[in-house]
Amino acid sequence: MYQEAIASPKLVDYVASFQQRLDGKKLIMGGVKTCLDPVKGLDLKLRAFDMFLTQFPQWKGKVVLFQAVILPKSEPESAVADLKAMAAEINQKHGSEDCAPVML
Q: Could you say which DSSP state residue 96 is in?
């Protein structure tokens, strides 16, 4: 199911259009089925990306982390609230008006 989702023509077209809007920025793209699985480590991925931008500020404005989170219907939207807050904090710390480094 996951392989079919990431290979779907709709997603491929979206990613191509998204890359055009990135205007030459590097894209780090990830996707998971749920955010509650601790093995997936989405919070760790966001923290690592924050540390990367802190340690290598020359990459600010040149790289974007796009993280797709596919929630099962059984999980409430509130399950991603902490991740969204973390992404907003990273964007405020490392972003600018024309570049948000994290997109969920």
A: B
Closest CA to 27 of 103, 92, 85, 78: 103
Which 3 state secondary structure label does DSSP give 36? coil
**For the chain, what's the residue count?**
104
Give residue-wise pLDDT tens across range 70-89.
777 776 666 678 888 999 99
Confidence category of residue 95, pLDDT binned at 50, 70, 90: very high
What pLDDT sits at residue 43? 84
Task: Give the other-Cβ count within 10 Å of 23's Cβ.
Answer: 8
Closest C-alpha among 104, 23, 87, 88 to residue 61: 23
Q: Which of 37, 22, 29 is nearest to 68 (CA)?
A: 29
- Collapsed DSSP state (helix, strand, coil) of residue 34: coil
What single-letter DSSP state applies at residue 75?
S
Q: pTM for the complete prediction? A: 0.76
Q: Is the separation of the CB atoms in 90 and 102 below 8 Å?
A: yes
